[in-house]
Amino acid sequence: NILIIDFGSQVTQLIARRVREAGVYCEIVPFQLADEAYERLKPKAVILSGSPASVHDDNAPLAPQKVFEADIPVLGICYGQQVTAHQLGGKVEGGHHREFGRARITIHKESPLFEGVWEVGKDYPVWMSHGDRVTELPEGFEVIATSPNAPLAIAVNEKRRYYTTQFHPEVVHTPDGAKLLSNFVHKIAGLKSDWSMAAYREQAIQAIRDQVGPEGRVICALSGGVDSSVAALLINEAIGDRLSCILVDHGLMRMGEAQQVVEMFTEHYNLDLKCIDASDEFIAALEGESDPEIKRKTIGRMFIEVFEREAKALAEQGKDAQFLAQGTLYPDVIESVSFTGGPSVTIKSHHNVGGLPERMNMQLVEPLRELFKDEVRLLGKELGLPDSFIGRHPFPGPGLAIRCPGGISREKLEILRQADAIYLDEIRKAGLYDEIWQAFAVLLPVQTVGVMGDGRTYEFVCALRAVTSVDGMTADFYHYDMNFLGNAATRIINEVRGINRVVYDVTSKPPGTIEWE
Ligand code: XMP
C-alpha cells in the first residue's frame, strides 16, 4: 500500500486516483495526521502532495521525518519536492509568484520513474508549477530533467529511491503522468496490481460499520441519481435495515422517474425506502416565482423542511437516526473548499451541497467522498446496479424547475415532462444516449404563432439542449445531424399539446452554463 501525505493541494485526490488506476491500494491523509497513519499503514512507499503553502511559512507543513528515515521510496510532487529538499538539508528559495502552466521538459538521464515512457535527449509536455524553488539539492540528489523555467523538473536520489518533480504528474495536462505514477508504484515500490473496485467496496463497507457502530442508524435522501443510489446501497450492505431512505418527490422529476426508483430499490434491493409525494407543497411554494436563484433556494429550503419532517416521523417510529448519508463526491469536496481564501463568485447555488447537514445536526456518512464520478459508476456496477441506471445523464437537484425559465405551474411542468421524454426517447433510439453527456428539453416562457391543420396556434417554444463534457465544468454543444433534430422536433410538436416550435441550443460552457437557470 501507499501513503499519500496531503499538504492541501487541490489535486491530491488525483494522485490517489492514478494509484488506484494502477491497481494499488492507497490512503490520503492530511499532513497533521501523517505520523499516526504511517504507523498504522506501514506503507511500502510515500507520496508527498503539492500545496499552496511555502516551506518558509510559519508552521509550514512537513512530512514526518521518519518517512525519510525508513528505507522506502518517496515521490515528492511540487511542494513535495520542496519539502523533501528542505527536510533533507537542501535549500528552498521563496518569493516567486505562484503560477501553473504547460511546459516542456528535457530528459538528461534514464530513470525507472519514466522507464518505457520517456527517452533521454527528448522533451515532453508537463503541467508545471512555479512557486518557491529548490536552489540547493540535498546530498545524493541529482537533476535528471529540466525545462528553461524549471531547472529541477525532476531531481532524484536513485540510491535511496527518492523521486521529486516540480511538475504535477497526476493531472491530465501531463499526458504521460499516469504512466510515471504507475512506474513509481510498480517498478520503484515493487507493488503488484491487486486492488480493485471489489476491494474498495469491502473497505467502504467496513469504514461505514466502524463509523456508525453496532447500534447507529442512518437516514438517506435518495434522489435516484447515481451518487445517492450508490451511497445508499453501500450503507445498506454495511448496516442493513438500520438505514432508512426517503425519496422526496418534489414534482420536478422526469416522467415516471419516482416510480422507477421506488420499484428498483424496493424490489431488487429490499431497501427501506419511503417515497413522499410533496409535489403540491413544492409547486405551491414556487408558483409565480421566476427568479432562478429564488427558485433554487426555495427548493432547497422546502427539501430540508420535508426531509426533516419525515425524519421526525421515522424517529417517532423508533427509527431515530444519528447519521445523515450523503453521496458527496470528491469534486464536490474540492469545489466547496476554498484554498485561496479569496472571494469566489456563486454562479448558481447547487441545492444538494450544503444546507441539510448543518440544519439536521447529524454526523455525515459520505462513503463516496474520495471518488470521482466514473469511479462511482464502477462501484455501482460492482453493487449490481443496472447499466441503464449507472449510465444515466446527470440530473440537477432542483429538477425541471430550472428548465422552465419564468414562472412554474403544474401545466407547464407536464408539457416539459412530455417533451423531455420524447426527446430522450429519440436520443436512445438513435443510439446517441451514451455519446451525449447530458441532454434535456427546456420550456421557454415565450409563445409563438404557428399553423397546424388549418388553424392558428399560439403556444410555447421548446429548446433542446445536448452537451458533451467530461466533468460538467466545461461543455460543448452536441453536433447533431439535422435530420435527427428535425425528427425530434416534429414528434414533440405533434405529440405535445402546448408546444408549437422547437429550437436547438448551440451554446458551449463557458460562456453558457449547461442548465438554463
Ligand atoms: P451548470 O448549469 O452549472 O451545470 O453548467 C453543471 C452540471 O451540474 C448540474 N446542476 C446541478 N446538479 N444540483 C445538482 O445536483 C443543482 O442544483 C444543479 N445545478 C446544475 C447540471 O445539470 C449539469 O450537469
* Main beta sheet strand tally, sense and closure: 9 strands, mixed
What would the principal axes of the Cα set say about the shape? globular
Q: How much strand?
A: 15-25%
**SS elements, strand count:** 20
Share of helical residues: 25-40%
Mean pLDDT: 91
- Report the radius of gyration as a whole number of Å: 26 Å
Uncertain regions spanning at least 5 consecutive residues: 337-344
What is the CATH class name of the largest domain?
Alpha Beta
CATH level 3 topology of the largest domain: Rossmann fold
GO molecular function, one term: GMP synthase activity
Subunit structure: Homodimer.
Protein name: GMP synthase [glutamine-hydrolyzing]
Domain GMPS ATP-PPase: 195-392
Walkthrough of the structure:
Helices cover 34% and strands 23% of the residues. It is α/β, with parallel strands linked by helices. It folds into 3 domains: 2-188, Rossmann fold (3-Layer(aba) Sandwich), CATH 3.40.50.880; 197-390, 3-Layer(aba) Sandwich (Rossmann fold), CATH 3.40.50.620; 409-504, GMP Synthetase, Chain A, domain 3, CATH 3.30.300. The strands form 4 sheets. A 9-stranded mixed beta sheet has the order 2-1-3-4-11-10-9-6-7, with helices on both faces. Strands 14-13-12-15-16 form a 5-stranded parallel beta sheet, sandwiched between helices. Strand 12, helix 7 (226-239) and strand 13 form a beta-alpha-beta unit. It is globular. Mean pLDDT is 91; it is low at 337-344. Xanthosine-5'-monophosphate (XMP) is lined by residues 348, 350-352, 394, 396-398, 438, 472, 509, 513-515. Catalyzes the synthesis of GMP from XMP. This is GMP synthase [glutamine-hydrolyzing].
